Amino acid sequence: MFDLRSKISARLKACRAHKGWTFAETATRLGEAMGAKVIPSRYGNWELGENLPPLSMLIGMGKIFDKPPAYLGGLSDDDGDAPETSGYVVPPLSTVPSAAGVVDIGDSALAFQKDFLEANDLDRQNILVLSAPDDSMSPRIRKNDRVLIDLSETVVSHDDMFAIMISGRPRLRWIRQDLDGNYVIQAEQREYYPDETVTAAKLKALHILGRVRMITQLR
User: Fold this and answer.
1) CA 62 from chain center: how many Å?
2) Which residues sit opposite 128 in a β-bridge?
3) In this structure, are residues 125 and 109 in contact, taking their beta carbons and an 8 Å threshold?
Protein backbone atom coordinates (compact mmCIF):
# COMPACT_ATOMS: atom_id res chain seq x y z
CA MET A 1 0.00 0.00 0.00
CA PHE A 2 2.91 2.33 0.81
CA ASP A 3 4.42 1.77 -2.63
CA LEU A 4 1.05 2.54 -4.29
CA ARG A 5 0.72 5.75 -2.31
CA SER A 6 4.21 6.78 -3.31
CA LYS A 7 3.48 6.09 -6.97
CA ILE A 8 0.22 8.05 -6.89
CA SER A 9 1.91 10.89 -5.02
CA ALA A 10 4.72 11.16 -7.57
CA ARG A 11 2.36 11.10 -10.53
CA LEU A 12 0.01 13.71 -9.11
CA LYS A 13 2.93 15.96 -8.24
CA ALA A 14 4.37 15.64 -11.75
CA CYS A 15 1.03 16.35 -13.39
CA ARG A 16 0.35 19.39 -11.22
CA ALA A 17 3.85 20.72 -11.82
CA HIS A 18 3.39 20.27 -15.57
CA LYS A 19 0.24 22.39 -15.40
CA GLY A 20 1.94 24.97 -13.21
CA TRP A 21 -0.91 24.93 -10.68
CA THR A 22 -0.90 25.41 -6.92
CA PHE A 23 -2.80 23.07 -4.60
CA ALA A 24 -5.62 25.61 -4.48
CA GLU A 25 -5.81 25.98 -8.25
CA THR A 26 -5.81 22.21 -8.70
CA ALA A 27 -8.57 21.78 -6.13
CA THR A 28 -10.66 24.47 -7.84
CA ARG A 29 -10.34 22.81 -11.25
CA LEU A 30 -11.05 19.39 -9.77
CA GLY A 31 -14.15 20.74 -8.07
CA GLU A 32 -15.37 22.17 -11.39
CA ALA A 33 -14.82 18.80 -13.09
CA MET A 34 -16.61 16.95 -10.28
CA GLY A 35 -19.47 19.40 -9.81
CA ALA A 36 -18.69 19.58 -6.09
CA LYS A 37 -16.25 21.64 -4.04
CA VAL A 38 -12.85 20.11 -3.31
CA ILE A 39 -10.76 21.84 -0.64
CA PRO A 40 -7.02 22.26 -1.29
CA SER A 41 -5.98 20.27 1.78
CA ARG A 42 -7.92 17.23 0.57
CA TYR A 43 -6.10 17.23 -2.75
CA GLY A 44 -2.84 17.94 -0.92
CA ASN A 45 -3.27 14.83 1.21
CA TRP A 46 -3.46 12.70 -1.94
CA GLU A 47 -0.40 14.28 -3.52
CA LEU A 48 1.56 14.03 -0.26
CA GLY A 49 0.62 10.36 0.08
CA GLU A 50 -1.36 10.84 3.29
CA ASN A 51 -4.55 9.34 1.83
CA LEU A 52 -5.57 7.41 -1.28
CA PRO A 53 -7.95 9.25 -3.62
CA PRO A 54 -11.30 7.51 -4.29
CA LEU A 55 -12.13 6.27 -7.77
CA SER A 56 -14.46 9.16 -8.54
CA MET A 57 -11.66 11.64 -7.78
CA LEU A 58 -9.18 9.73 -9.95
CA ILE A 59 -11.66 10.08 -12.80
CA GLY A 60 -11.92 13.81 -12.15
CA MET A 61 -8.15 14.22 -11.95
CA GLY A 62 -7.82 12.28 -15.19
CA LYS A 63 -9.95 14.99 -16.80
CA ILE A 64 -8.03 17.98 -15.50
CA PHE A 65 -4.57 16.44 -15.98
CA ASP A 66 -5.45 14.79 -19.31
CA LYS A 67 -4.15 11.42 -18.10
CA PRO A 68 -5.79 7.99 -17.80
CA PRO A 69 -7.28 7.51 -14.31
CA ALA A 70 -5.64 4.08 -14.10
CA TYR A 71 -2.25 5.73 -14.61
CA LEU A 72 -2.87 8.32 -11.90
CA GLY A 73 -4.06 5.56 -9.58
CA GLY A 74 -0.88 3.56 -10.07
CA LEU A 75 -2.68 0.65 -11.75
CA SER A 76 -1.13 1.18 -15.18
CA ASP A 77 2.12 2.60 -16.53
CA ASP A 78 0.45 3.81 -19.73
CA ASP A 79 0.21 7.57 -19.39
CA GLY A 80 -1.51 7.92 -22.77
CA ASP A 81 1.60 9.34 -24.47
CA ALA A 82 3.19 6.11 -25.71
CA PRO A 83 3.79 6.16 -29.52
CA GLU A 84 1.29 3.38 -30.16
CA THR A 85 -1.44 5.10 -28.16
CA SER A 86 -0.67 8.82 -28.39
CA GLY A 87 -2.79 9.23 -31.52
CA TYR A 88 -5.87 7.83 -29.80
CA VAL A 89 -8.16 8.87 -26.97
CA VAL A 90 -10.30 6.76 -24.66
CA PRO A 91 -13.11 9.10 -23.58
CA PRO A 92 -12.80 9.67 -19.83
CA LEU A 93 -15.39 8.35 -17.46
CA SER A 94 -17.55 10.98 -15.83
CA THR A 95 -19.00 11.75 -12.43
CA VAL A 96 -22.48 13.21 -12.31
CA PRO A 97 -24.21 14.73 -9.29
CA SER A 98 -27.67 13.30 -8.62
CA ALA A 99 -30.27 13.23 -5.87
CA ALA A 100 -28.69 10.00 -4.64
CA GLY A 101 -25.17 11.49 -4.62
CA VAL A 102 -22.35 11.45 -7.14
CA VAL A 103 -22.81 8.78 -9.82
CA ASP A 104 -19.96 7.34 -11.91
CA ILE A 105 -20.97 6.83 -15.55
CA GLY A 106 -19.26 5.96 -18.79
CA ASP A 107 -17.60 3.08 -20.60
CA SER A 108 -13.97 2.61 -21.69
CA ALA A 109 -14.59 0.03 -24.41
CA LEU A 110 -13.79 2.35 -27.34
CA ALA A 111 -10.84 4.52 -28.35
CA PHE A 112 -11.01 7.25 -30.97
CA GLN A 113 -8.33 8.68 -33.22
CA LYS A 114 -7.61 12.28 -32.26
CA ASP A 115 -7.76 13.42 -35.90
CA PHE A 116 -11.21 11.84 -36.21
CA LEU A 117 -12.48 13.75 -33.20
CA GLU A 118 -11.07 17.04 -34.45
CA ALA A 119 -12.54 16.51 -37.92
CA ASN A 120 -15.97 16.04 -36.35
CA ASP A 121 -15.73 18.98 -33.94
CA LEU A 122 -15.53 16.77 -30.88
CA ASP A 123 -13.50 17.84 -27.84
CA ARG A 124 -11.73 14.79 -26.43
CA GLN A 125 -12.25 16.10 -22.88
CA ASN A 126 -15.95 16.69 -23.48
CA ILE A 127 -17.14 13.34 -24.79
CA LEU A 128 -18.47 10.25 -23.10
CA VAL A 129 -19.14 6.66 -24.19
CA LEU A 130 -22.25 5.09 -22.70
CA SER A 131 -23.46 1.51 -22.83
CA ALA A 132 -27.19 1.51 -23.60
CA PRO A 133 -28.86 0.44 -20.34
CA ASP A 134 -31.93 -1.18 -21.91
CA ASP A 135 -33.85 -1.85 -25.14
CA SER A 136 -36.06 1.24 -24.92
CA MET A 137 -34.41 2.63 -28.08
CA SER A 138 -34.36 -0.61 -30.08
CA PRO A 139 -34.08 -1.45 -32.89
CA ARG A 140 -32.02 1.70 -33.44
CA ILE A 141 -30.03 1.12 -30.23
CA ARG A 142 -30.08 -2.21 -28.43
CA LYS A 143 -29.10 -2.91 -24.85
CA ASN A 144 -25.29 -2.77 -24.39
CA ASP A 145 -24.71 -0.97 -27.71
CA ARG A 146 -22.21 1.84 -27.23
CA VAL A 147 -23.05 5.45 -28.02
CA LEU A 148 -20.76 8.47 -28.16
CA ILE A 149 -22.13 11.51 -26.35
CA ASP A 150 -21.06 15.10 -27.01
CA LEU A 151 -21.24 16.62 -23.53
CA SER A 152 -21.06 20.16 -24.90
CA GLU A 153 -24.49 19.88 -26.57
CA THR A 154 -26.98 20.15 -23.75
CA VAL A 155 -29.39 22.64 -25.33
CA VAL A 156 -32.19 21.23 -27.51
CA SER A 157 -32.08 23.44 -30.59
CA HIS A 158 -33.68 20.85 -32.89
CA ASP A 159 -35.23 17.40 -32.71
CA ASP A 160 -32.50 14.92 -31.84
CA MET A 161 -31.40 12.08 -29.57
CA PHE A 162 -29.90 12.91 -26.19
CA ALA A 163 -28.57 11.20 -23.10
CA ILE A 164 -30.46 12.38 -20.03
CA MET A 165 -30.32 11.53 -16.34
CA ILE A 166 -33.51 9.96 -14.99
CA SER A 167 -33.66 8.85 -11.34
CA GLY A 168 -29.88 8.93 -11.09
CA ARG A 169 -29.27 6.80 -14.18
CA PRO A 170 -28.47 7.74 -17.79
CA ARG A 171 -31.17 7.12 -20.41
CA LEU A 172 -31.25 7.64 -24.17
CA ARG A 173 -34.26 9.44 -25.60
CA TRP A 174 -35.49 11.48 -28.52
CA ILE A 175 -36.41 15.05 -27.59
CA ARG A 176 -38.79 16.68 -30.07
CA GLN A 177 -40.61 20.00 -30.00
CA ASP A 178 -44.34 19.95 -30.74
CA LEU A 179 -46.49 22.65 -32.37
CA ASP A 180 -47.48 24.08 -28.98
CA GLY A 181 -43.87 24.84 -28.03
CA ASN A 182 -43.69 21.99 -25.53
CA TYR A 183 -41.18 19.16 -25.81
CA VAL A 184 -41.86 15.44 -26.12
CA ILE A 185 -39.37 12.95 -24.67
CA GLN A 186 -39.69 9.70 -26.59
CA ALA A 187 -38.28 6.19 -26.67
CA GLU A 188 -38.40 3.97 -29.74
CA GLN A 189 -40.38 1.35 -27.81
CA ARG A 190 -43.24 3.74 -27.05
CA GLU A 191 -45.63 0.92 -26.12
CA TYR A 192 -43.50 0.10 -23.08
CA TYR A 193 -41.93 3.52 -22.48
CA PRO A 194 -44.68 6.14 -22.87
CA ASP A 195 -44.01 9.63 -24.20
CA GLU A 196 -43.54 12.41 -21.69
CA THR A 197 -44.46 15.97 -22.59
CA VAL A 198 -42.71 18.80 -20.73
CA THR A 199 -42.77 22.57 -20.95
CA ALA A 200 -39.74 24.58 -22.02
CA ALA A 201 -39.16 25.51 -18.37
CA LYS A 202 -39.21 21.87 -17.25
CA LEU A 203 -36.94 20.88 -20.13
CA LYS A 204 -34.42 23.51 -18.98
CA ALA A 205 -34.45 21.92 -15.52
CA LEU A 206 -33.90 18.44 -16.97
CA HIS A 207 -30.37 17.05 -16.59
CA ILE A 208 -29.30 16.58 -20.21
CA LEU A 209 -25.85 15.00 -20.44
CA GLY A 210 -25.38 15.66 -24.14
CA ARG A 211 -26.32 14.76 -27.69
CA VAL A 212 -25.79 11.32 -29.22
CA ARG A 213 -23.19 11.67 -31.99
CA MET A 214 -22.38 8.03 -32.79
CA ILE A 215 -24.00 4.62 -32.34
CA THR A 216 -21.96 1.40 -32.47
CA GLN A 217 -23.39 -2.11 -32.69
CA LEU A 218 -22.01 -5.63 -32.73
CA ARG A 219 -23.81 -8.14 -34.95
Assistant:
1) 11
2) 149
3) no
Local confidence pLDDT in tens for the 219 residues of the chain: 447 889 999 999 999 999 999 999 999 999 998 888 999 999 999 999 999 999 889 999 999 998 888 889 988 877 776 655 668 888 877 877 777 677 788 888 898 998 999 999 999 889 999 999 999 999 999 999 999 999 999 999 999 999 999 888 899 999 999 988 999 999 999 999 999 999 999 999 999 999 999 999 988
Complete domains list, the chain, with CATH: 2-72 (1.10.260.40), 88-216 (2.10.109.10)
35: left (phi over 0), alpha (psi -120 to 50) or beta: left
Say if pTM beats, i.e. exceeds, 0.70: no
